[in-house]
Design the sequence.
């Protein structure tokens, strides 16, 4: 394993994947036709499924990075952080085996809770007031897009692979809102 590879590379690659999928969606729309009623008919769903997967890979990768960075900043700056917060930031869970030995395994944290924790820990690390507002549009779009992702990742019927234009738009809004809030945190940190 290359020790020089970083989280930054991960985030950049996932961001580039998203951008590439987004360009392919636009290309498929450009290649579509418009009927007499003004409706667009385009072969976009293959690209939409990839875009949705790219959005969630990006959000999950960035969320992990934000948590670990915030925990590290707390430790470096003397901000009180509990052992439980450190373990959750690193997505580690502990249990005890039948032999009485402590076992470490990856924590399974629901994405919305994980994102909220990442924002909360970031606010704590930077000693800033709460910035996250769960009533904003992008958050409700994210919650709906998670349902679409879950449907796509565990399909049981062919129609579960379909992505409507509205679902696609909400997924893009979710990613853009997530990015906007992260940029706000970065601006607060550098101010």
Sequence:
């Amino acid at each position: 394993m290359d020790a020089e590879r970083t989280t930054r590379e991960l985030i950049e690659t996932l961001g580039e994947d998203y951008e590439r999928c987004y360009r392919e969606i636009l290309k498929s729309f450009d290649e579509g036709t418009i009927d007499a009623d003004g409706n667009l008919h385009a072969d976009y769903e293959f690209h939409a499924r990839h875009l949705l997967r790219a959005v969630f890979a990006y959000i999950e990768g960035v969320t992990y990075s934000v948590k670990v960075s915030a925990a590290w900043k707390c430790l470096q700056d003397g901000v009180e952080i509990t052992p439980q917060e450190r373990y959750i930031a690193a997505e580690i869970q502990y249990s005890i085996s039948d032999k009485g030995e402590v076992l470490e395994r990856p924590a399974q944290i629901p994405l919305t809770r994980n994102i909220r924790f990442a924002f909360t820990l970031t606010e704590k690390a930077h000693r800033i007031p709460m910035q996250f507002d769960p009533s904003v549009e992008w958050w409700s779009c994210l919650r709906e897009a998670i349902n679409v992702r879950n449907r796509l990742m565990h399909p049981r019927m062919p129609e579960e692979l379909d992505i409507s234009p509205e679902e696609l738009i909400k997924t893009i809004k979710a990613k853009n809102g997530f990015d906007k809030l992260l940029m706000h945190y970065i601006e607060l940190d550098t101010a």
About this structure: Strands lie at 33-34, 40-41, 92-96, 102-106. The two ends are 37 Å apart (CA to CA).
